[in-house]
Every structure is written in C-alpha cells, then in structure tokens.
Amino acid sequence: MTSIPTAQQQLDFIAKIQRLFAEGDFSATYKYALLIALTEIAVESDVQDGRELVVSNRLIADKFIELYWKQTTPYTSGLPETIPGVLAQNHGVQAAIVNAISEFRSTYSMGINTLNAAKAHEAYRSLQGKVATVVSAQPLNYLQNYGGATHAFIYARDKGQILLLPGVVYCLRAFQGLIQQLARARWVEYVKSHKDNRSIVGQAGDLESFMFETSRANLMILGKLLRKLDGHHCFYCGVVMQSTDVDHFIPFSAYPRDLGDNFVLAHASCNRSKSDNLASLTHLENWLERKQQKQDDLQSIASEAGFIFDSQASKSVAHWAYSSALNAQGSAWVRSQSYDLISPRYLTAIER
C-alpha cells in the first residue's frame, strides 16, 4: 500500500485547487466539467491510498458526454421574457462537445432518447472519440495553468491517457464535495453571465437543477418501475406505502451522480427523516443484497428510465461514503430520531 498524503500535502493540494479557480482562465465550461469528471473517476476507482491512477481520455470523454447530454436540449425557464434555447458554453461559437453530442442526437433521434440507448448504439464509439479529441486538445491541455504558469499537480499527460499523480486520487476523494460544489456553482454562474444565454435564462432560479439533476419525469418513471420490482413496502421500515418517494440510498448531497441501483422506494416520512444521512448497517446490508440479487432487473429499469447503471461504481461510491463517515466518526440513520455510530463493520459488509 502506498502511503496516503500527509495533512500538509492535502492542504497544499486543496490550496492549489482554490488558486486554479481564482487564477485560472475559464473561457469555456470544459474545465469545470473536467474537474467534476476527475473527482467522479477518483471516487469510483478502487484506489484508497496514495497510489497513482491511469485514466484513459475515452473514460473522461464518457464523463463529459454524461455531463453535457442534458445540456444539449433546450432550456425552458417558463418566464415570459425568455425564449427556449440550448445554453452557450463558451465565449466563441458553440462548444465543440455540445455540437458533437447535438449532431449525434439529431442523426440518431429515431432510436435514441436516453444516454443509455446512446451508449449501446454502434455510433457511440465515434462520438466518444470526437469528444476525447476535444478533451485532449483543450481542458486537459490547459486545466493546470494558473497564475501565468503551468503547475502539473493533478496529472501528467501521455498518449490517449493521463496519469493522476501520487496522492491525487486520495485528495480528490477527500475533497470531492468541495471541488464538485465549486465546479458546479462556477459552471452555473458562467452560463448565467454569458451574454448569449440572457434571453434564455432570464432570472430563472432552477438552472442548476436543469444542468445537473435528473428530471422529475424520469424519477416518476423510475418510481413506477421500482414498484413493480420491489412492491409497495418501504425499503427502510417495511410498512406498506400508499404513496412513495424515490430516495437516493447514498445521498445525492454526498455524491451528486444518479446511478440506477442507488434508488429505493420509501415513505415520505422515512425519506424526510433519513434526509442527507447515510443509512445504518441493516439498511446497507439489505441494499447490497438487493443489488446482487436483482442486478439484471435493476439494470433494465435504469435503462428504461434513462439512468446510468454501473453496479461496481455504486459499490465503490458506497465504500467511499462510509469510509469518509467512519474517519469523521459519523453516525448512520436507523429510523426517526435513531442513529448508529458507523464502525468498520460497515466497510466489511461492502467488501464481502
């Protein structure tokens, strides 16, 4: 096992990230997308110490396509002074990645209405290659430039891939929440302030939801399909439900990426009580068992409802979330007003 970064090295890393946001040149939204992509790749990897990690440009391109997929559709604020339109993502002509995804969606519109369907299409690899080329030429080339110089503190470049440097994966995992929050907030701010978006956005307050969150329509479809699979019992308390909420088992606030097998059905009261907390060991074990026993059904449901399905990624995210909580001496939600101190047993359950 490679030694984890020292406390000082971690502080140095996040200080450089903050300088990157303060002093870097953000003339397009690509750098924000790259920072989000790299944090997701780090969290979803199996690297839990100070090891390096090789990441292909195509994997980064996959993340970019996922991030920009919804943003290639027109945004409608509903405000009387605005008009629907695709959001501009840079200061020149429309961003090349947006154009590539839009062209793909237009060309294959008859058979593709979800990202899952796109990934299953024979032409997807070509789209992935186009996006990887842009990622290589632009954000990968310039992300680490700030203060008038290049500071290669995140990755080193190689043909068709990058190497996340020693300690970087650990730091990206440790500071995932801060980095993603900064990147998303700055991305939304950029889009709102772009002159070409003013007639589209107006004073709308739901722009972040449109850009980064799953639509309510998709969640409704998912809920109906999960009821057919899991029945009408609350995942947490087991009582029959008259109406249901779709809950993120690993809270969206902790890891804002919608993975198909991270959703469960719950009473509104259980959902509100659990809120942004991790769930207790019994709930975790039930979730892991459900993932294993119903994997094919969950994958089919995710595909139909328009969600990404990656069973290994969701398990890695769970391990990361509970590891972070364990290190912070955190507690897990059992039921309303009842919590359990998170112990190493939680990680053992995930690692089985």
TrEMBL record:
Any one Gene Ontology molecular-function term assigned to this protein's record: endonuclease activity
Domain of life: Bacteria
Keywords: Endonuclease, Hydrolase, Nuclease
Coiled coil (UniProt feature): none
Keyword hit for Nuclease: yes
Entries under Pfam families matching the protein: HNH_4
Domain HNH nuclease: 222-272
Protein name, per record: HNH endonuclease
Species annotation: Chitinibacter fontanus
